[in-house]
UniProtKB/TrEMBL annotation:
Keywords: DNA-binding, Transcription, Transcription regulation
Taxonomy of the source species: Bacteria, Bacillati, Bacillota, Bacilli, Bacillales
CDD domains linked: WHTH_GntR
Superkingdom of the organism of origin: Bacteria
Domain HTH gntR-type stretches: 7-75
Keyword Transcription regulation: yes
InterPro entries named in the record: GntR_C, TF_FadR/GntR_C, Tscrpt_reg_HTH_GntR, WH-like_DNA-bd_sf, WH_DNA-bd_sf
Protein name per UniProt: FadR/GntR family transcriptional regulator
């Protein structure tokens, strides 16, 4: 039996959105689900959903009422579904790439500084994040939390208050990019194990005070993630 080609991620999102509008029988004036519900339904970030909704409002497809939610203005559910899926995908990809550029600039330096400044307490927090990452295995949310805590712990260990404030301000965006990259790697058990090993190596270098090694490992980690995402997008075309 000839195997059917696997559907691309973007096509799956399009299909889910179209099915949603068909089964829900939405009409003009109806309220859309919340950002959180849409993000959960289509497995994308809330930031991407928020940007998509703003673009749909600019096109006159929906109306966003402050404090009340988003409401449908068009009777063409297919148009709404296609517009929503397209804007979510574009917003998601743009967010991921921009955040990875920022993370590479910021976290590489933080790994370097953490190697020189980390206290025993800082190192324990990083180690605990790795242990939780290992224990989470295929639990998406626990793995996401552990991954995020690992990177935040390194920023804290840099003992640079400006870096920490910046990361805390952008924590939601940072979580979105980690979610997207982990979603990509979860599809391949070998890459998921590789992710754990990459984090472990970074911790070892920081704990050993190997500043240049920690810096190189962090840069390699984020650069590799960006490369994998780029390849994934090319495969979807």
């Amino acid at each position: 039996m000839i195997p059917q080609p696997k559907k691309k991620t973007y096509q799956m999102i399009v299909d889910q959105i179209k099915e949603y509008f068909l089964t829900e029988e939405l009409k003009p004036g109806d309220k859309l689900p919340t950002e959180r519900e849409l993000a959960s339904r289509f497995n994308v970030s809330r930031t991407s959903v928020r940007e998509a909704l703003r673009k749909l409002e600019n096109k006159g497809i929906i109306e966003i009422k402050q404090g009340s939610g988003s409401f449908i203005k068009t009777s063409e559910f297919q148009l709404l579904g296609e517009e929503l899926s397209t804007t979510i995908i574009h917003a998601e990809n743009k967010l991921i790439y921009e955040m990875l550029e920022l993370r590479r600039a910021l976290e590489v330096e933080c790994a370097f500084l953490a190697s020189k400044r980390a206290t025993s307490e800082d190192l324990e927090h990083i180690r605990q994040a790795i242990e939780k990452m290992k224990a989470a295995e295929n639990d998406v949310e626990l793995g996401l939390e552990a991954d995020l805590n690992f990177h935040l712990s390194i920023v804290r260990a840099s003992h640079n208050s400006i870096f920490l404030q910046l990361v805390q301000t952008l924590s939601e965006h940072m979580q979105d990019t980690i979610r997207a990259t982990r979603r990509q790697r979860l599809a391949d058990p070998e890459r998921l194990q590789g992710t754990f090993e990459e984090h472990k190596e970074m911790y070892i270098a920081i704990a050993a005070g190997e500043a240049e090694q920690a810096k190189q490992l962090m840069e390699k980690h984020i650069t590799q993630i960006r490369k994998e995402l780029a390849e994934s997008l090319l495969n979807q075309e």
